Amino acid sequence: MPCTGWSLSAVAGHLDAPDSACPVVLDDDRVAGFVLGSLSFEQRADRGCPEWIAVDPDHQGRGVASRLVRECCARLAAAGAVCVVTDVERRNTASAGLMRRNGFAERARVSLFVRPLADSTPTDSAAPRRHPPRAAAERVR
Prior knowledge:
- It contains four helices and four strands, in the order αβββαβαα.
- By secondary structure, the chain is α+β, with helices and mostly antiparallel strands.
- Strand 2 and strand 3 (about 45-55) form a beta hairpin.
- The longest helix is centred in the middle third of the chain and has 15 residues, at about 65-80.
- The protein is globular, with a radius of gyration of 17 Å.
C-alpha cells in the first residue's frame, strides 16, 4: 500500500490499537523517531507490518531506526505475529539497508502501475491525494 501521507485519524488509530506496535524514541522532550506498526498485513492476523518509520534528521546515523525496528518487531511478536512484512520503495536505499541490517530479506518485487488521468502527469511528489466528492463516488456503479 504505497502512500504519500497519513491522516491524523490513521496515526491515532495505530497509537490507540490494543496491541500497539508503535514505539517512540525520545531525546529529553523531543521526538527522535517513531514507527507505526500493525498486527495485520494483507488481512493476515499472524503477520505484522512496520508501516511508517521516521527519524529526526538530527538523530539519523545513531541507531535510532534500528532500535525502533527491533522494538516494533518485538511488540508484533508478543501480539502473535509469526513474521513481519514491510515494503521499501526501490530508490530508498537507506531504508532497504536498514531492513537488511535488521534481519529482513527481499522476497518479492512489486511494480506499481500508474495511469494518468486527463491531462495530468503522475509525479513522485508527496502531493495530497484527491478523493472524489461523495456524490460523484456514489454515481459510479
